[in-house]
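Annual report, structural modelling task.

Input specification for the iron/sulfur cluster complex:
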Amino acid sequence: MSFITAKHPMPEQDPRERIKNFKEVALGYDQETAVAEANRCLQCKGAPCQKGCPVGVEIPAFIKLIKEGDFIAAGNKIKERNNLPAVCGRVCPQENQCEKQCVLGKKGEPVGIGRLERFAADYGAAFDRTAQHLSRQVTGKKVAVIGSGPAGLTAAGDLAKLGYRVTVFEALHVPGGVLAYGIPEFRLPKDIVKREVDYLKSLGVEIKTNMIIGKTFTIDELFTDGFQAIFVATGAGLPYFMNIPGENLNGVFSANEFLTRTNLMKAYRFPEYHTPVHIGAKVAVIGAGNVAMDSARTALRLGAQKVTVVYRRSEKEMPARLEEIKHAQEEGVEFLFLTSPVKLIGDKEGWVKNMQCIRYELGEPDASGRRKPVAVPGSEFNVEVDTVIMAIGQGPNPLITQTTDGLMSNARGNIIVDERGQTTRSGVFAGGDIVTGAATVILAMGAGKQAAISIDQYLRDK
Ligand code: FAD
Ligand code: SF4
Ligand code: SF4
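The model returned the following structure:
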């Protein structure tokens, strides 16, 4: 029985240093710390933690291997269920998933399952020189996966392991979805995403980039081309705006554009890369989820002097991961709670200069269970800004539903599926953010896993 009630702390870059660079903030456990953290695990019968993992990682089993010092075996144990372990170890909202179910959490802190997962994945990538030859029978049947985010990559990996010939079609020039274009380098280094994608390629998955399904090819053309089942995992990449006056001024971005320019187009390495991004001295980020925290911390690293997160609810309701909020606070991001912009005001040249805001107070709980923000009449005030980043959510791109007969979506544009991920069109499955709306990496991966099982069943029955 362990008497250590707190997780072993994660070594991190000093906040004063890290706001000057894009290198990873969390540095990862060394071997000694990983074994010490693994020793906190009680190896509970029935593994309650495992029930909180949407892809079913055998948590006590991999932690036991770390305890025993067999780090490579621990990494391989995770990979039996999880095709992207180094990603999940870094960005999974563990506090709401596996770690929420950990029995140690009742009296102290849960086991640092995500930190251990990251350790085992990184150790395996650095030291496992035995190529994993999976004995699989190739069925010859072709499956198309549309979108290379966590949902698409998970389904592709599992289907390849089952022996299918899988081709992933990705609209952008780099695979990974949000992992590549959205989550910044300082949280999820891009060579780690590439490493996970390379692992899937080693399983036989083919990835075709610069392919916009609905434009380059339609779903019907993919069927004509011999694909026997299709998994649509196109995410929720269409940014929402507030529809307030002044949103078209220069210096106003969607978080999606701002982060894509920085991560995918490497604006932070201008002029080495020829795609700069404009950043002012006073930046306001509207919203309080992970996307808002990433935008605020990116703006600081790009040289903004003052970055303020503006949120219409209070700190308690912030949807971002706790760790991201803590990191943003440590780095000097300021917060303006119970406030929302009503108008953006520009100068003669058309650049945003001021933001008129209104105060809110919290009323009764709404459909989401959170207390509804109610505007306080007459409480308007102005905030000086020269960059505004809208991070209030994203929705699905309608391209595929508009170009595919019989593929039904709901009022929000999310594709309708049954519990197996089957859409209203035979042979077409869907999962991840395109079905649920913007959610999390691990939920998208869980949907990808379910889709692989359903597609296998569908093709066997066919
Ligand atoms: P995506 O990751 O969005 O991938 C969809 C892919 O499909 C994209 O690559 C897109 O280019 C491609 N595509 C779209 N249309 C087409 C088409 N017509 N043809 C071909 N390809 C197409 N979740 C967490 O759990 N933890 C976090 O810390 C976290 N941070 C986040 C930070 C940001 C900035 C953002 C935006 C999201 C964050 N999320 C986080 C949410 C998480 O990333 C998403 O829920 C997850 O990526 C959804 O996976 P997906 O596979 O459904 O879609
Ligand atoms: Fe926990 Fe995510 Fe790993 Fe599952 S994949 S064990 S939820 S960190
Ligand atoms: Fe270990 Fe916590 Fe899972 Fe128990 S619930 S096996 S202590 S990780």
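Residues 239-390 form a domain with the FAD/NAD(P)-binding domain fold (CATH 3.50.50.60).
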